[in-house]
Design goal:
The relative contact order is 0.19. The longest helix has 20 residues, at 184-203. Helix 1 (3-17) packs across helix 4 and helix 4 crosses helix 7 (327-341). The chain is of the alpha+beta class. The strands form three sheets. Strands 1, 2, 3, 12, 13, 14, 15, 16, 17 and 18 form a ten-stranded mixed β-sheet that branches. Strands 4-5-8-7-6-9 form a six-stranded antiparallel barrel. A three-stranded antiparallel β-sheet has the order 10-11-19. The protein has seven helices and 19 strands. The chain is 26% helix and 28% strand. It has two domains: 3-71 and 183-341, Zn peptidases (Aminopeptidase, 3-Layer(aba) Sandwich), CATH 3.40.630; 73-167, Elongation Factor Tu (Ef-tu), domain 3.
Amino acid sequence: MEQKYIDYMLDVLERMLAIKSPSGYTKEITGFLCSELQASGYQPNTLRKGGVNVNLGGNGSPIMLFGHVDTLGGVVASIKSNGGLMLTNIGGLNPNNTETEQVTVITRDGREYEGTLQVANASIHVNPKINDPRDFKANIEVLLDEFVTSAKEVEELGIQNGDFIALNPRFTVTKKGYIKSRFLDDKASSAVLLTLAKYYADEKLIPNRNVWLSFTMFEEIGHGGAAGIPDCIEDVISVDMGCVGTGLKCTERMVSICPKDSGGVYHYALTNELIAAAKKAKADYALDVYPMYGSDVEVTLRAGFDVRHGLIGPGVYASHGYERTHIDGLVNTFKLLHAYLT
């Protein structure tokens, strides 16, 4: 893989991560995806629910690759009498690894306010219960960086129940090539798919399948892959994150191929084809069963589509927290896909 495409992949990943896109608040990233694909000469279209589809061309049986760009987050559940904001989580946001994170509160009319997720009464010098278990319903709140001391003063800012709360991703790339950020699930693989599209356009390559990309907007809350699949599609592959953890072979430098997760088994023949493609590309890969995981393409099957389905992705450590992957993991994912499609 040429360095210019690796550079693009990292650049587009950083730009996507900078866009606030908790599930349900994805208009800006929808526009970003369309602009990026149009810049490579494609004609993307948007779904009513906010997803972006694009046909990359190619000959042979149609296949759709899913990436999702919605993220975990929260919304304001209530405003406390002292001006703190209680939140309810979007998706699997974990209170234990969000404390002290910088956030942005986005009002219905588009105003934005900075704040911090903190345990209530956060000073150890005044709070005897400072080490109680963290719970969004009990003691984790947003401390606004505003001169407010009451619910009335917060409401005067235009903040109300249901306003979105987006967390700072804190993107960085280390000297050793590790990529650290929130929301690598699944903006990392979405960056791989955008790079694949740019690569085919720039190199004027024609895939051996009719390739479609679908960037979904509701994966984190369970219905991203339920709509927007053209009738011609025969195979669907979720290009999401590979799991890294105890009992699994995958590392952040590998691409993971998943034969089964908590939603059930993936298509036997398609999974074998993905393994063969990884070997063909000499991609460093692992074959792992994920104990607690669900993907867009499982939703596609439950929605009634008659397709084969598979799941791959770069290894990501600390999923749904401050995550870590590696440039090599993204490159190996690209290599597998390119070998499979050309």
